[in-house]
UniProtKB/TrEMBL annotation:
The keyword Nucleotide-binding applies. It holds the Pfam family dNK. PANTHER family: DEOXYGUANOSINE KINASE (PTHR10513:SF46), DEOXYNUCLEOSIDE KINASE (PTHR10513). One of its GO terms (cellular component) is cytoplasm. It comes from the Bacteria. Residues 13-204 form the Deoxynucleoside kinase domain. One of its GO terms (molecular function) is deoxynucleoside kinase activity. ATP binds at G17, N18, I19, G20, A21, G22, K23, T24, T25. Keywords: ATP-binding, Kinase, Nucleotide-binding, Transferase. This is Deoxynucleoside kinase. InterPro entries: DCK/DGK (IPR002624), Deoxyribonucleoside_kinase (IPR050566), DNK_dom (IPR031314), P-loop_NTPase (IPR027417). The lineage of its organism: Bacteria, Pseudomonadati, Bacteroidota, Saprospiria, Saprospirales. It comes from Phaeodactylibacter luteus. The active site is at D92 (proton acceptor).
Length: 217
């Protein structure tokens, strides 16, 4: 199949999704094809993450605090360089992800404190031209998680993934400041199936006004 080299419409694209949805893989493919600057979350550097999956009550606050400070530092360094937008940026996370996961994982007292810190740090970041959410049902996420073989992820419960998904959808319904595209992937493997990948490109490379939009692959 002939590869589509047409320029992307959106200069700053953020790809979100549940654990195992394929967001980082898609970002790498899109960046390689269109020479966009690639901004990936360094989640493996969080020393609390393996402990969190074994004992979430004890390690929820330090794991979320570490994620927030590291994401803020990375975004401040990368998005503060305005000349980068001349060739485009694609990122595999939005800073608000910090708040969504924290709300799901922290107790009410911890979350209130965390929320105050988040809003202070979030004030200066530009909004993406398109927020793309790759949606897969929870039962299709679990095989992906097992296949990539991260030991600390193997005990993730379906209920936890369902909670994360709901947190994203609640955020989308309350946000009208940016274009949000929910793309239902179903069981499509866009890595093995190039037609599926180029269909994804066709869908995202459209103008979307602010608000929530939903398409199926």
């Amino acid at each position: 199949m002939k590869e589509d080299k047409a320029a992307l419409l959106h200069q700053f694209i953020v790809v979100e999704g549940n654990i195992g949805a394929g967001k980082t893989t898609f970002c790498k493919m899109l960046s390689a094809q269109h020479q966009y600057r690639l901004l990936l979350e360094q989640f493996a550097d969080n020393p609390f993450l393996p402990h969190f999956y074994k004992n979430p009550d004890r390690y929820a606050f330090p794991v979320e605090l570490f994620f927030m400070t590291e994401r803020h530092k990375q975004l401040q360094q990368e998005l503060g360089q305005h000349e980068l937008f001349q060739k485009g940026i694609i990122a595999d996370y939005l800073f608000v992800k910090t708040l969504l996961f924290a709300k799901n994982n922290l107790n009410p007292e911890e979350y209130r404190l965390f929320q105050r810190l988040f809003h202070i740090l979030n004030a200066s970041f530009p909004k993406p031209d398109l927020l793309l959410y790759l949606h897969r049902p929870v039962e299709q996420l679990l095989p992906n998680i097992r296949k990539r073989g991260r030991e600390y992820e193997q005990e993730i419960a379906p209920a936890y993934l369902q909670q994360i998904q709901q947190a994203y959808f609640d955020f989308f319904r309350s946000n009208e400041q940016m274009p949000i595209l929910i793309l239902d992937l179903g069981g499509q493997d866009f890595v093995a199936d190039r037609k599926a990948y180029f269909r994804m490109l066709e869908i995202i490379n459209r103008p979307y006004p602010a608000g929530v939009h939903r398409e199926a692959l």
